[in-house]
């Protein structure tokens, strides 16, 4: 593992890391996050598809895909890469009375981004989750001013020199994984 930040020169100035000598490999990153509601209205309205702005989960899924594709426009030192796949899963988080911060439920978000290239797609996966999460917030803000975007992180990275890394104990939404 590097002992310095790769985007800094020895003198401490920021620069874009050269990937010109790195081999192209298949790379995958999965990021997750959630939007927690502060009252019961958003969950109820999403379930009944009754929000004035439309189908929250469908629009958020498209927003997540679009966000991944725009990552280098938002993060200054990210390389523009050719993304071969973006998959977004959104699942409703049911209320849990025993957990103060989950008593009104929310939306779980999982983004999988893939490419074949010389650099990874972790930033694209994280940007995808944030694009989807912010869209949930935008579509529900009229009925919940206190929503929180939480627990956004990379949980899986595959490809490149460092190989596979997976957050210990993580299971995907499709595997019945839950965000606590």
Number of helices: 4
User: In percent, how much strand structure appears in the residues?
Assistant: 25-35%
CATH class: Alpha Beta
Biggest sheet descriptor: 5 strands, antiparallel
Number of domains: 1
| pLDDT < 50 runs, ≥5 residues | none
CATH superfamily caption? Molybdopterin cofactor biosynthesis C (MoaC) domain
Main-sheet strand order equals 2-3-1-4-5
- Going by helix content, strand content and strand pairing, the class is alpha+beta
CATH architecture: 2-Layer Sandwich
Keywords: Lyase, Molybdenum cofactor biosynthesis
GO biological process, one term: Mo-molybdopterin cofactor biosynthetic process
Catalytic activity: (8S)-3',8-cyclo-7,8-dihydroguanosine 5'-triphosphate = cyclic pyranopterin phosphate + diphosphate
Organism: Delitschia confertaspora ATCC 74209
SSE order and pairing:
Elements: E1 25-36, H1 41-47, H2 56-69, H3 71-74, E2 83-93, E3 106-117, H4 122-140, E4 148-158, E5 165-166
Antiparallel strand pairs: 1-3, 1-4, 2-3, 4-5
């Amino acid at each position: 593992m590097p002992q310095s930040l790769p985007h800094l020169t020895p003198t401490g100035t920021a620069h874009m890391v050269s990937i010109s000598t790195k081999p192209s490999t298949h790379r995958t990153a999965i990021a997750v996050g959630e939007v927690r509601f502060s009252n019961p209205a958003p969950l109820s309205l999403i379930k009944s598809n009754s929000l004035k702005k439309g189908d929250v989960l469908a629009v958020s899924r498209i927003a997540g895909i679009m966000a991944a594709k725009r990552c280098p426009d938002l993060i200054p030192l990210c390389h523009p890469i050719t993304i071969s796949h973006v998959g977004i899963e959104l699942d409703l988080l049911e209320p849990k009375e025993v957990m103060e911060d989950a008593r009104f439920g929310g939306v779980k978000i999982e983004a999988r981004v893939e490419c074949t290239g010389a650099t990874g797609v972790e930033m694209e996966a994280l940007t995808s989750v944030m694009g989807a999460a912010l869209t949930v917030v935008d579509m529900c803000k009229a009925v919940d001013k206190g929503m929180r975007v939480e627990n956004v992180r990379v949980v899986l990275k595959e490809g490149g020199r460092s190989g596979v890394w997976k957050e210990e104990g993580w299971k995907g939404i499709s595997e019945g994984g839950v965000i606590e």
